[in-house]
């Protein structure tokens, strides 16, 4: 939700910030803005629309000069997306300029107080309240900018990553973080600030990730000074060496990041198990898990909390864990879990799944579970993210940066990690035979090849997409392990094509959705060879009898479903427990091609954001 970028140093700030905003646009893209400071004048430009709109406007309207600057790409929370509500925001004097990612929940009461003191507001945003609160403190308490920020943040309830500067201090940027991510890139006599490291990766490999409730004063010619917002303690910052490279955050010849990320899956699934899974030797070993195996296998139950696509990966894990490890599993939407007074005890293990590691509801669910004494294990993609730090232990997926808003490779790498955890635990608990254990390890190692095969059917899937692109509704059906895949397939289509789609357990169709079926309704059925194959075949017949159009995901060599279906998308055979890793591929491609044919903005679908740092 919102991307922020800042620069202070010897270079021109404009191209760095503009480029940085383009890289962060996945975080929000309803408006954008930039402020440049050349030591005397501030040039500020902002607009509703995308970063490209900002670029056009800035190049028309302002002088693009200055070695200090901040920029913002927005996902609106307070105030509709328009020019005025876009960031940066000035304080009343025009001296302070701020950008903000997050929400100030008590902004209304603070605003009333400030109005009584004569402050005026041009926007509807909570951010303009914050910058004026800081200014008010600076003036009344006669303190420096850093101190004023600190006092103000102690009065604020909510979440934020902020960056601001003061016209009177041309060599300084102040930043602070609570609940939204903030990285500081350390160059030679120059500093970068951003929501993630992508805006500065070509300039430096060294970064400090602020912890929650920390702020930093970044001054040219000095070290970055990090301190606690509460209690004022100085913190020795940990400068991390980044693993990211430029290639990973570029499209690499693909039309969209989403397509690139779909095609990266064979490689990133391999990256995710590399060094952890040695099928030949019968070893699966996850660094973060080894010390907690007893805790897991003696747990009363496992509770999985997540949102969106990560929640679907959690549903797949419910099947794998109960099947292989024989531990009861519950999968919860983090947003529901956190507010419904859940019964959680010290004997529960909670697994939190999050690509970004920043999702506000998942983070709150983790904090709640910890407060009730549960052990919390994280599965995150973004290294150093808040959730990865907030959990007791965990495993990273090695998907690399996922930039397309619709999640693809994060989903399959999450399932890869969850399958490895299940296999490791099943082995330790003795709920799997040695033969089956070895078979699963070998099959897991083969998944990248199977995904590769599934990707080769893309041309066929394009043809199917052309046939159904104008449908107004889709139904997705699957059973067992592939019920969550049906949910995920429907979500992908909704997210990027704006076609209404519903995922359902195939057998539940009779209890409602069957009423919707007629000759206009495409029904995507996951009908691979499995224990439920015959049942799914019966479901397909029920759809056919009502003239529904069947698009079936089938196993290689299938004949029965092929005869009944209008179209088939073939995937290689794999044990059912691992099948979501391959059956999801044609569904990703189907949604992608339909969205492209409809002319949608695939990487930045309307109203969505990649990282939801507000509840
Ligand atoms: C947003 C994204 C989804 C993602 C969900 C959870 O809604 O658009 O793609 O699945 O957040 O995000 P997380 O980073 O916690 O996996």
UniProtKB/TrEMBL annotation:
Protein name: Glutamine--fructose-6-phosphate aminotransferase [isomerizing]
PROSITE patterns linked to this entry: GATASE_TYPE_2, SIS
Chain's gene name: glmS
UniProt organism field: Aequorivita aquimaris
Residues in Glutamine amidotransferase type-2 domain copies: 2-221
NCBIfam families per the UniProt record, alphabetical: glmS (TIGR01135), PRK00331.1 (NF001484)
Subunit structure, interactors included: Homodimer.
GO CC terms in record: cytosol
InterPro entries: GATase_2_dom (IPR017932), GFAT (IPR005855), GFAT_N (IPR047084), GlmS/AgaS_SIS (IPR035466), GlmS/FrlB_SIS (IPR035490), Ntn_hydrolases_N (IPR029055), SIS_dom (IPR001347), SIS_dom_sf (IPR046348)
Domain SIS intervals: 292-431, 464-605
Active site (catalytic residues): 2, 610
EC number(s) stated in the UniProt entry for this protein: 2.6.1.16
Catalyses which reaction(s): D-fructose 6-phosphate + L-glutamine = D-glucosamine 6-phosphate + L-glutamate
UniProt cross-references to CDD domains, sorted A to Z: GFAT, SIS_GlmS_GlmD_1, SIS_GlmS_GlmD_2
Keywords recorded for this protein, A-Z: Aminotransferase, Cytoplasm, Glutamine amidotransferase, Repeat, Transferase
Single GO biological process annotation from the record: amino sugar biosynthetic process
Role according to the record: Catalyzes the first step in hexosamine metabolism, converting fructose-6P into glucosamine-6P using glutamine as a nitrogen source.
Subcellular location: Cytoplasm
Root EC class: transferase
GO molecular function, one term: glutamine-fructose-6-phosphate transaminase (isomerizing) activity
């Amino acid at each position: 939700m919102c991307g922020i970028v800042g620069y202070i140093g010897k270079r021109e700030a404009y191209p760095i910030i503009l480029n940085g905003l383009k890289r962060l646009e996945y975080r929000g893209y309803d408006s954008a803005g930039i402020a440049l400071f050349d030591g005397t004048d501030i040039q500020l430009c902002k607009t509703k629309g995308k970063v490209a709109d900002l670029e056009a406007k800035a190049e028309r309207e302002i002088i693009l000069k200055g070695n200090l600057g901040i920029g913002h790409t927005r996902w609106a929370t307070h105030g509709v997306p328009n020019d005025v509500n876009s960031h940066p925001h000035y304080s009343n004097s025009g001296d302070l300029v701020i950008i903000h990612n997050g929400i100030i929940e008590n902004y209304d009461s603070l605003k009333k107080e400030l109005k009584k003191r004569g402050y005026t507001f041009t926007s509807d945003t909570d951010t303009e309240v914050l910058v004026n609160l800081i200014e008010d403190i600076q003036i009344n308490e006669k303190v420096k900018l850093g101190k004023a920020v600190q006092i103000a943040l102690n009065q604020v309830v909510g979440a934020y990553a902020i960056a601001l500067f003061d016209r009177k201090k041309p060599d300084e940027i102040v930043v602070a973080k609570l609940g939204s991510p903030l990285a500081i890139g350390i160059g030679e006599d120059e500093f970068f600030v951003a929501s993630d490291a992508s805006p500065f990766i070509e300039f430096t490999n060294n970064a400090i990730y602020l912890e929650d409730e920390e702020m930093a004063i970044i001054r040219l010619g000095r070290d970055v000074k990090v301190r606690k917002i509460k209690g004022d303690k100085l913190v020795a910052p940990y400068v991390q060496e980044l693993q990211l490279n430029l290639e990973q955050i570029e499209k690499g010849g693909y039309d969209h990041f989403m397509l690139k990320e779909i095609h990266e899956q064979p490689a990133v699934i391999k990256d995710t198990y590399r060094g952890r899974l040695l099928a030949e030797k019968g070893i699966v070993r996850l660094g973060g898990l080894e010390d907690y195996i007893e805790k897991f296998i003696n747990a009363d139950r496992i509770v999985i909390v997540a949102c969106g696509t990560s929640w679907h990966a959690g549903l797949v894990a419910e099947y794998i864990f109960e099947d292989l490890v024989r531990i009861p599993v519950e999968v919860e939407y983090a947003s529901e879990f956190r507010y419904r007074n859940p019964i959680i005890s010290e004997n529960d293990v909670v697994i939190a799944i999050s690509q970004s590691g920043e999702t506000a509801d998942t983070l709150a669910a983790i904090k709640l579970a910890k407060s009730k004494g549960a052990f919390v294990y994280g599965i995150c993609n973004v290294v150093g993210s808040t959730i990865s730090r907030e959990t007791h232990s965990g495993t990273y997926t090695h998907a690399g940066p996922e930039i397309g808003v619709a999640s693809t490779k994060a989903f399959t790498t999450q399932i890869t990690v969850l399958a490895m955890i299940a296999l490791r635990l099943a082995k330790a608990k003795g709920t799997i035979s040695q033969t089956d254990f070895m078979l699963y390890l070998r099959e897991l190692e083969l998944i990248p090849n199977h995904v590769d095969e599934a990707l080769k059917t893309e041309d066929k899937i394009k043809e199917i997409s052309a046939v159904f692109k104008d449908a107004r509704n889709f139904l997705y059906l699957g059973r067992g392990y592939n019920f969550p895949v049906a949910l995920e397939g429907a979500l992908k289509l909704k997210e990027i094509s704006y076609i209404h789609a519903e995922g359902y357990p195939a057998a539940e169709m009779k209890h409602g959705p069957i009423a919707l079926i007629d000759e206009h309704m495409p029904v995507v059925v996951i009908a691979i060879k499995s224990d439920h194959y015959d049942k799914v075949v019966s479901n397909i017949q029920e759809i056919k009898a009502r003239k529904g159009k069947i698009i079936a995901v089938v196993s290689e060599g299938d004949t029965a479903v092929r005869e009944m279906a209008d179209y088939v998308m073939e995937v290689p055979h794999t044990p059912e427990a691992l099948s979501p890793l391959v059956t999801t591929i044609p569904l990703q491609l189907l949604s992608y091609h339909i969205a492209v044919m409809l002319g949608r903005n695939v990487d930045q679908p309307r109203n969505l954001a990649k990282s939801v740092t507000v509840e």
